[in-house]
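From the pipeline queue, job 12 of 40. The input is one protein chain; the requested action is below.

Action: predict structure.
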Amino acid sequence: MSEQHAMQRESHGAPASVPTDRPVDAAALGTATGVDVARVEAAVREIVAALGGGPTLERTPERVAQAYSEFFAGIGVDPLAHLTDTVAVGPETGELVLQRDIEFRSMCEHHLLPFIGVVHVAYVPGERVVGLGKLARVVETIASRPQLQERLTEEIADALETGLDPRGVLVVVDAQHSCVSARGTRQAASTTVTMASRGELATAAHRAEVMALIGGIA
């Protein structure tokens, strides 16, 4: 069973990514990421022309294509591949594994604008656990696609449930959306929180315990 909850709260900032600006081999990037970078570059060239063009925008299509190859690097990648190298622990699993504040960035599929924030991942182990770095890899892979925050939350929970066979899973995502902060109502301080739970952590009492450990979610 799964349960979702969405709410709005105010925040004073979100993690930001560092842009890169260097020449890129579009064909090589397209092969590496599954993104047709040459088509992206051609499409952006049309957008630039529609905006009037100009010498300062000459390399913009190339830069955008490079950025898209990074933003969408998770297309066609199976997040379960990060959960294959597990450690069998039998009954000595402990009660809970909680990794807080996994930073991520994703692209909202409605406007192709970024949303940026943190993911908190908790699971009650079954008979095996996985390295903590692998949890961040799962988040990164699923986030690096055209996404909705609600679906991102559910897909992370699904991957952990399938890949680790735990007794329970809880995923909480807290993110700031550019499509809300930079356009429309322009709520620059607003963030969105979504939740997905499975198994033992789907009960209200267990969720409350984990949320208390996470802290900072109003």
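Job complete. The mean pLDDT is 86.
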